[in-house]
Each structure stands twice: as structure tokens, then as C-alpha cells.
Amino acid sequence: MRIGHVDADGTAGERVVEPVRVEGGFVTAYDHTAEEVRTYPLHRVTGAAPLTDTDG
User: Fold this and answer.
1) Chain segment 5-31, per-residue pLDDT in tens
2) How many helices (H) and strands (E) in the chain?
3) PROSITE patterns recorded for this chain (predicted)?
């Protein structure tokens, strides 16, 4: 899925992730952009959408 998020400095970004767990206000996911597992605070996630066939 694709998520939008804002980092601690207020910079908006977008990541392609595969969620592993949502717990305690955080989502842990394999981040295909960074090629590693990362944890994102849910209050910084600005949106989420499934990938489509046109998303390379």
C-alpha cells in the first residue's frame, strides 16, 4: 500500500509499505522504498491507499 506521512520536522513524504502490525498507535511495515522494516506513528500518517496495477 502507499502511505503519506509527515516526519518529525513537518516534511511530508510518501512510502510504499507492506504492513506487518498496527499496535499501540504505531504501524510497523516493510518499507519497500527503504528496503527495511520501519515503524511509523499513526498520528503522522496522512493517508493510505492500496497499490494499483499501474503502480510500478
Assistant:
1) 999 999 999 999 999 999 999 999 999
2) 0, 5
3) WYL (PS52050)
